[in-house]
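User: quick one, fold this
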Amino acid sequence: MISSDELKKQAALAALEQVEDGMKLGLGSGSTANHFIRGLGARVRGGLSVVGVPSSERTAELARAEGVPLATLEELPHLDLTIDGADELDIRLRLIKGGGGALLREKIVAAASSRMIVIADGSKLVETLGAFPLPIEVNHFGIGATTAAIADTARRLDMPSSLTRRLAADGSPFVTDGGHAIIDASFGLIRDPEALSLALAAIPGVVEHGLFIGLASAAVIARPEGISWLVA
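Assistant:
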């Protein structure tokens, strides 16, 4: 039986084949992206010339340890390719991301890229998004009012909502790399991700949300029976 972690690695290495010498890369965050970064590091040590822009402090730390040259979006405002994981995706390449708390930077990096390839094991591909709670990054100021507005939005869209402030491992409130809080929102199955995306983005206090729509151009899905590609 192939483990989930091994499938993540297979997807990451399949996506790594799309990397060409001289590319400016967006480096995703999370366990699947970590496999990609380790594979990229091995290729860099073998002579590949690339520059990466990390989407989280943890990603930056791993990339430096692997010897991958790094830059910022101030230095490289346009990237050739971002490779990142997803907490869920559907066949239209709409994603839920942010389980690791890096959704804001991940979305900024993906939006700065000509292409985004998603890497995932087969369990992440779903018919309808929403089994995984949607992370919503919010400003600390007015967090109660913002949370209430999110609940009101869900009611207006005729969706259930269970909203929980994310906590760190030590029980303290989770804080993102950008200094914000995260609300994990269980809306049930999200029948209209586009409508929810627009409604959440319109709430003052919502910094960003984990619906990635229109950003991914392809996905590599690893299952025990082999690798498959989804293309937008």
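User: anything notable?
Assistant: The helical segments are 4-16, 31-45, 57-65, 103-111, 143-156, 193-201.
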